[in-house]
Write a structure and sequence with these properties.
Blueprint: H1 5-14, H2 19-38, E1 48-49, E2 60-68, E3 72-82, E4 85-95, E5 97-98, E6 102-103, H3 111-125, E7 134-140, E8 144-145, E9 153-154, H4 171-181, E10 187-193, H5 195-206, E11 210-216, E12 220-230, E13 236-243, H6 256-264, H7 272-277, H8 279-293, H9 305-313, H10 320-330, H11 336-369, E14 377-382, H12 384-388, H13 392-404, E15 411-415, H14 419-432
Parallel strand pairs: 2-7, 7-10, 11-14, 14-15
Antiparallel strand pairs: 1-13, 2-3, 3-4, 5-6, 8-9, 11-12, 12-13
Helix pairs in contact: 2-11, 3-4, 5-14, 8-9, 8-11, 9-10, 9-11, 11-13
This protein binds beta-D-glucopyranose.
Beta-D-glucopyranose (BGC) binds next to helix 5 and strand 12.
Length: 435
């Protein structure tokens, strides 16, 4: 007995967003943005100041760059040559979690353990040299409040991170202490930035006409260059990159799977948009839908976005690869028709995600244009979902076309691979040479 057809169609419809609804979502995103520019308390997004604008492209010098925002931490030594040119001199990286061996992101681990691990990696990047002065740019990709370019205070962990003693702390202070414990006090963190900001800096360093930077990976978020930022007292701070933390955007209608997943996540009620679109969650949503179809509601099969991408890529006659994945994760040998349905559901979840992300891009483009014409521009995006997930990129383009209509010709999205590292080095250069 295969899946119930009615039930399947109903679930598929839950993950489908037509043009009209997409328009409503884009409009409500823009409205939320406008509210937040007036008073951040009115927006569902955090809209965090970055204390940095776009680079001139002339930044030069050698810097350390720390990319800390997912399970893989990376450190680079980068030489900026100006004119959009740079060279990566050294690169090291290690995961924060190796199942069965260690885990620095779980509830039981501490800030000290986590930052000691990172300091060790930094030490490796400088070959244990404790004499030379190194300036470090830190891409710290979690929602953090800043009052200058150095002091990002973590508001709340996202992406299911749970390490104790980091929320409420200034990430760079924890890093400085760990570097000192290691005897590497010659490494001086001078700038901290969100990964979206890093992508924007990196892309704008190399290419003109870029004002929006986004990450579409394990997590999701976007930043843009806002021309008029004010401090809480209404004093104008001029143009600055604003990290929207739009993973927290909430003024849209989650379906019953989104709601149920949110309830059992590490942080219920938080990051509702991110839980609908990012790579960390898409596999979970698919698993919940499959469990419902199989009458096993509540079961977690541990499906990942990589499983989804392999299923979608399987265009073979018998869907052998997709069946194998289902067998391995779900533990059932399903007939061809049901495997095909699961593959269709996986595609629908990816397409929904891409359409929602596109709606947020369009909202920002509208906001930047105001009542004027939409400027020719590229939206810089980095991240595994954008880069590798089948159907993601093409559906962003398609949805932007539906929303922007004739203005769509003005805008495209471009991949800025590795921007988190390069952007951190650029921010360090901007911090060191600002006077
Ligand atoms: C974080 C953002 C980050 C995004 C992409 C989200 O979970 O809140 O700060 O930019 O992930 O890494």
């Amino acid at each position: 007995m295969g899946f119930n057809e009615e039930q399947f169609k109903e679930i598929l419809a839950e993950f489908t967003i037509d043009t009209e609804r997409l328009q409503t979502i884009a409009a409500s995103f823009r409205q939320d943005l406008q509210l937040g520019l007036r008073d951040v308390e009115l927006s569902s997004m955090r809209m965090l100041k970055s204390y940095v604008g776009l680079p001139s492209g002339k930044e030069t010098g050698e810097y350390l760059a720390l990319d800390f925002g997912g399970t893989n931490v990376r450190v680079f030594r980068i030489r900026l040559d100006g004119g959009g040119k740079f060279e990566i001199i050294k690169r090291v990286g290690r995961p924060l979690i190796v199942p069965g061996k260690y885990d620095y992101i779980c509830k039981e681990s501490t800030a000290e353990q986590m930052f000691d691990f990172i300091a060790e990696l930094i030490d490796e990047a400088i070959d244990g040299d404790h004499n030379t002065k190194y300036y470090l740019g830190h891409t710290f990709s979690f929602p953090s409040t800043q009052t200058n370019l150095y002091d990002a205070k973590l508001i709340i962990w996202t992406k299911e991170f749970a390490t104790q003693g980091v929320e409420g702390e200034i990430a760079n202070d924890l890093l400085v202490e760990a570097l000192k414990r290691r005897g590497a006090g010659n490494v001086e963190p001078v700038a901290v930035l969100n990964d979206t900001v890093a992508v924007l800096l990196s892309a704008a360093y190399k290419t003109p006409d870029i004002f929006i930077g986004s990450i579409y990976a394990t997590g999701h978020n976007t930043c843009y260059l806002e021309s008029s930022i004010h401090d809480p007292n209404g004093v104008g701070l001029g143009g600055m990159i604003l990290n929207l933390e739009c993973g927290n955007f909430m003024k849209l209608i989650p379906n019953r799977f989104d709601k149920e997943y949110d309830e059992r996540s590490e942080k219920p009620g938080e990051q509702r948009f991110e839980k609908m679109v990012s790579g960390r969650y898409m596999g979970e949503l698919l698993g919940m839908a499959i469990a419902e179809l199989l009458g096993e509601k509540g079961k977690n099969y541990g499906l990942t976005s990589i499983d989804m991408s392999m299923m979608i890529l399987d265009e073979s006659e018998h869907l052998g690869k997709a069946s194998d994945i289902i067998m391995a994760k779900v533990g059932r040998e399903l007939d061809y028709a049901d495997v095909k349905k699961i593959r269709e559901l996986a595609s629908a979840i990816v397409i929904r995600s891409a359409r929602l992300v596109a709606a947020s891009f369009v909202a920002i483009i509208w906001q930047r244009a105001g009542s004027g014409k939409i400027q020719k521009q590229h939206v810089a995006v980095d991240g595994s979902v954008y880069e590798k997930m089948p159907l993601a990129k093409e559906n962003i383009v398609k949805a932007m076309g539906e929303l922007l209509e004739e203005d769509a010709a003005q805008v495209d999205t471009i991949l800025d691979n590795g921007g988190s590292g390069l952007g951190a080095a650029i921010a360090a250069a901007m911090a060191v040479n600002k006077d």
